[in-house]
């Protein structure tokens, strides 16, 4: 059978951007920034995206297109008779953990979407919006059903392959989401008291300049760009040789930063204008945005459209995460894709059950002082992703031959360019040192 491939350059970029943007930019960035100083977190997030996460994203593109297989097989092919395939195994394991709690948040969106359709999401007070979120996430039946539906939707798209499933969906979802966010940002900025939110987002509070904030911002830059789990290794394996990898990386990174900024501009002016707390946590988007839409004419309709687009963005990220697991399970056998997509999806749903129930029946169960959902998030983003990113940077910097790496970058780029040498320094020297230093500092070892 013919191997999977993207049908167009824009299809790959939008799919990769969809993987990157998702809940990472829209859901997680606002509450992480809100809980960690706003502007300082944003500053480190952009800095780490440009200097570390972006270069590692390009490194994953290089590995993936050169290996042209699933993550595990790619490392085995490029570094035979070595321990490097561990990076593929690590990425697959971390991807399973991420999707296990990510699908729970995806289920929350479905719950809100249902209430939007039935007209139960408008006309509430600000306190009632907060109470609604607590009611939803603590209801065991609702969260499990919603999580299950979300995983089924993800499986149905991934099982159909790259062009017919992931690429086709991303081409529609991502432009529509960007347009909606611009509209929302404009409305949020017109609220009384919005300026205080902009100050929180853009004027630094240096008291938050700590190693913990740096580690969290580093983890967010990895999470937001889907690097460190070899997701982009898998996506890039479907690329044709005429694709300009550097330009693709730049497009994905810029789109991710823009959407994250727009999410902050939508959320924080509304947070302060409507009297919410920026450190609300994972429920920030689900509590604040319905209250914002409630202030709009035709707010119910806008809320419905936004939730549909948010669901789409969440699904595009879920597609990429399930894709790496499915590709690893099916080992390059397209005829086995459907079976392994279902096996992987059901496995991830089962692993995610404790996270789904951690705000309700398992609310008293904590690990290191954190709910199961929060612990899974913390382990994946602050240990799994940085470790995976570190190993990927070392693999490209020290295991692959420099001429082979540059050869991949030159394809579709009309020959060598000076930026390649800057990038190679970042990936070989700066990224490993920065990741290790920030991680050790967070553990108070240095």
Automatic annotation (TrEMBL):
CDD domains: SLC6sbd_Tyt1-Like. It comes from the Bacteria. It comes from Jeotgalibacillus alimentarius. It is found in: Membrane. GO terms for cellular component: membrane. Keywords: Membrane, Transmembrane, Transmembrane helix, Transport. This is Transporter. It is a multi-pass membrane protein. The keyword Transmembrane applies. Its main location: membrane. Pfam families: SNF. SUPFAM superfamilies: SNF-like. The chain crosses the membrane at residues 12-29, 41-63, 84-110, 143-162, 174-194, 214-238, 250-276, 296-319, 340-363, 383-400, 421-440. InterPro entries: Na/ntran_symport, SNS_sf, YocR/YhdH-like.
